[in-house]
Recover the amino acids of this structure.
């Protein structure tokens, strides 16, 4: 199974993981790291590193889902996790996380990263109002 880490600014990572657990039930190897105002780069890096190491102990790889490309959590992940057993995907959203959790037991890390990206893109749509009956 692939472990999943969701990281971004503010309460978003925790809100995403809590929402998905409300839908799918409690999830093993699902972690979140929130970057809060005032957090130092060193504190963020330490928290990310320890969380990924913990997930590595119980999983075959780790998929890191980050917020916006270029945010400090994303750039720290790029510098910290230069190995084949960690993949980083930016632009985390609910459909992306749902897809990743649904397929993480049956796909390789590379395949899961691609599925997560596709799920995130497919979940974004312009919806027209339904005609009233």
């Amino acid at each position: 199974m692939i472990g999943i880490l969701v990281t971004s600014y503010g309460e978003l990572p925790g809100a995403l993981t809590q929402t998905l657990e409300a839908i799918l039930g409690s999830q093993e190897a699902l972690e979140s790291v929130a970057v809060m105002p005032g957090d130092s780069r060193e504190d963020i890096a330490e928290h990310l590193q320890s969380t990924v190491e913990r997930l590595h102990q119980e999983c075959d790889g780790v998929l890191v889902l980050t917020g916006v490309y270029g945010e400090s959590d994303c750039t720290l992940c790029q510098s910290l996790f230069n190995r084949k057993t960690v993949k980083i995907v930016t632009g985390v959203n609910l459909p992306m996380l749902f897809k990743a959790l649904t397929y993480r037991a049956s796909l390789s890390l590379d395949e899961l990263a691609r599925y997560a990206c596709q799920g995130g893109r497919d979940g974004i749509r312009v919806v027209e109002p339904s005609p009233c009956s």
